[in-house]
Each structure stands twice: as C-alpha cells, then as structure tokens.
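re: ur question from the group chat, yeah i did fold both. here u go
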Amino acid sequence: MAYMQVEIQCDDSTSELLIAALLDLSFDSFQETEGALLAFIEKGHYDEEALRTLLTNYKNEDGSPIHFLAEPLEEKNWNEEWEKNFDPVLIGEKVFIRATFHQPRPDIPFEIVIDPKMSFGTGHHATTSLMIRQMLTLKIENRNILDAGTGTGILAILAKKLGANKIVATDIDEWCITNSQENFELNKIEDIALLKGTIQELQLKSQFDIVLANINKNVLLDEIPTYATLLSKDGILVLSGFYETDADDIKGRAKNFNLKNINIDGLNSWACLIFEKTAQ
C-alpha cells in the first residue's frame, strides 16, 4: 500500500489540535517530533488542496503560519515499522506501558497494553507521563472517575487497574473511541462507559470524585466550568496538555469556579495541575 508522509512545521500545542482535524482528511497515523508533526495517509486519499486550505485556519502560538512538505514513502510493512520504533514505557517504577509485541513485566504492579496506532496516548508524551504520575498519588480505589479526552483510553485503563468504581471516558474523535475500545479489550476491561462528544454536548448528570483531562490549553479553558460542575464536593481535577508558562492562565480560570490549586508537576516544560473543589 502506497503512503504519503506530510511533515508539518508546528509547535506542540498546535500539533495536538491538528491531529483531530487531519483525521477528517483521512490521515490515519501520526508521529510528533521536535518542532514538527509527521502525518501519514494512503496515497489515493491524499488531497493537497484540502490540506492547504485546512492549514490556513491554524497558526503557531507565536502567530507564525503553518508550513508543510509532502513526499511519497516507499512501500513498507508499516506494522513492522511501528514495532521497530515503539518502545515500552516505565513510569514511576509502577506503571509499565507496552504494545502486544513487547514482553510482559509481571514484576511491575500495573501493566497497560496499548495498540500503538498513533504516537500519542502511549505514555511517551510528557503530559501522559505527568497525568499517570499524579494518578499514582491519588486515592482512586472505589472512586467515580471521568476521563475527558480519553485518546487511547490509557488513563481510564489505569484508573480501572487502580480500583476505580465507575469510569466514564469521552472523546470527540471517532478514531479515539474505536481505539479506546480496542485497548479496553486488550486489557480485559469491560465496564468503562465510552461516550463520543464534547463534555458540554454530552450533558452528563453524574457527579465524579476525580476528573482527568489531558487536552490542549484552549479546550481546557473552555471546559473548566463544566468540570467544576461535574465534580463532587472536595472532588479532584487533574489537568495537563499545556506548557508550564501557561499554568497561571489555567489556575486563574479554575479559581473563578471554586477550584483550589493544591499541586503542580512539570516535565520537559510541560505542566500538570491538580485542583480541589472548595465550597462556594
């Protein structure tokens, strides 16, 4: 099968936004690199004019335009290529994230198997690692958990392995819903409620003890009021997907909705903020 590779010059936060939009143009796999996003598409589905039009709607955080370079790839066994380039991840000596073709690690308390169709949501990105690090510090057993923007389902899977009671996982992308379900099955998990739509569209009625959201800054700023509404008294909100330089904006927005910042973590310039819901 012939593929095209498109190298899109963009910053990390813009890359996350572009992935969702590129899925609608039939791009089916991605790799985030330093200063660029590599997007792959079957040659027969590639529409350069549609791509060019799409990218005019986006800019980098510094206001600069998005540039791209497209080139055909030689035909390869892409599953084999993934296996060469997808390494297992160990976080905090407690969580081992691997693909089906890696050897298990029964000596690690929590093992998560992820089908590596894309390079995000596998534990390799700093924000995923930060979310997992913070989850390991929380009391999750018997708690009700919302995973907003579940991606590959990795955080929902960990929540289940940590003993969560009820888990609801949401995403706006059909691919993410499909891939999450596949990963739930790989990890022999059957009772996570998986819903497609924005957190506002879904109009959830349940209250949650912990809300997890690893999404880009602009989405978080928009959805923080809804997270606050969905949190139970003294509930915990864990947010990542933004740079350390953006933390004050997130904290300022959260403060307006009775969310008190109780912890901050960072890795490779990315940030993770933890909030507690306080009385009005």
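okk and heres the other one u asked abt
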Amino acid sequence: MPGSSNKTYSRPPLRPRPLSSRVTAVLASVARSFSKHPVLAAMAGAAAALVFAFLTVESTLRGVTNAILTGYAITTVALAAAATLLSRFAHREELLNHRKLRRLSRTDALTGLANWKSLDAALTAKWGIARRKGVPLSVILVDIDHFKRFNDTLGHEIGDDVLITVANCIAAIIAVTGGFVARYGGDEFGVVLGNRSPEKVLSVASTIRRRVQDLQIQTHGTRQGCLTVSVGCATCEPLHMSSADELKEAADLQLNEAKAAGRNRVRAATLSADAPAPTLEVSP
C-alpha cells in the first residue's frame, strides 16, 4: 500500500527463566491451590522454600566452582611462566658459574696471572699459527733466584707478596711488548712471544731481569743483596721443528745454564734444524 513502511519488527528472543524461579512458581501455584487445606499449603510452601534454597546454594556453588576452576587455570599459567623464567635464570647462572670455574681453572689464584695450563694451551695455539704463517716463535722462562731460601727465612706470607710483585713487574713489561705471560710453577714464570726476532726476544728477557733487580727487594746471603731472576729463552721457526714441547725444553735448558753460570743472567738460543743452537748470554 502507498505510504506503507517496509520495516519489519521482531520481538527479541525470550530468555528462559532460571530453573529456580520456574520451580518456585510451580510450587507456589500448588500451595495456592491448597489454600483451603492449611497443612498441605504449609507443606507446599515449605517444599518451595527448600527447593529455592537448594537451587540457590547449587547456583552459588556452581559460581564458586567456576571461580575456582578459573583461578586454577590462571594459577597454572602463572606457575608455568614462573617455572620457565626460573629455568632460564638457573641456566644463565649455570653458564656464568661454568665460565667462572673455567676461568679460575686457568688462572693462578695468588698472582692473578694465567697458570701453567693456560701457558701450554697458548703455546700450542701460537705454535700452530706460527707454523702456518712461517714466522718464529719464542718461549722465555723466568726463575726467581734462591726463592726457597728467601721464603724459608722471611715466611710464606712475605714470599707470596714477592711473587705477586714479580708477577706484576713481568706482566707490565709483556703488556707493552705483547705476548702471553703466566705463572708456570712455584717461583717460575713463562712468556710466549710470536713473530719476534731472536734479538728482540733477548731484549725482552734482559728487560725482565733488569726490572726485577731494580725493584730492590732486599735479601740476605746473596751477592747482589737484592732479589734477582735467571732467564732462559729459545726461538725457532715451527716449520722446521717437531713440536712446541721441543721449544719449551730448549728454553728450560737455557734457564738451567743461566742458573749454573751464576744466576741473575739471561741465556738465549735460536734453534735450527740444520745447525747447532748458538747461545747468547747477558749478565749484569
């Protein structure tokens, strides 16, 4: 029809009444039908009240149960997240502790220098590099003269202070010239130098001997009256030698010869596969 609207109207869907309301309404209707019978009406009313109370409690319990389940789910997720974070933290701590233990296992506890394990590892690594590049490699061994006598006379505490002082002195020199320094034994220190000429190695060794004597650490029963060191060093081209141990043994031999010659001196050798090792000596 003209002027008529095409709009359609629909009722919103009816929501079902709660079960408690429906049951209560039925029981209330039954109670009214028994209005002429007070006892039956009272019984019906009581039944309606009991059902309402039960359904109310049941509805409340269902809400509590849902709340508990929701809380349990949230708690489970939170605990899982916390467990993941704790696991990552524990793993990180384990890595840090492992690195710390590894560092400590390669460090001398008294002087803070690398220890003999680190020196051997550095020598092996630098040996491979020098062999591959065809450049020389050198080892310097430093031994404190008469340290046992000094230690026994003045005590281990002062002896430890002396070791630390000598270690710092050598480390300062190597920090300038380049190289790897370690405490190799009780009163012995080792240095690895890569790609240095024999003359440069001898110069570094002589500097170590002179600087330690210049510390003027007083001793008794020695010719100089102060702490000194003996130094042995050896240089070779790994391409012509069999192993790094051979180089280290050659430096140790030079050290022993320096001590046998009167101590407080440097002896150096250049190793060659074709010729005997010439020996140089620097004494005060």
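fwiw on the second one: The chain has a mean pLDDT of 80. The chain has two domains: 18-105, 116-282. idk if thats what u expected
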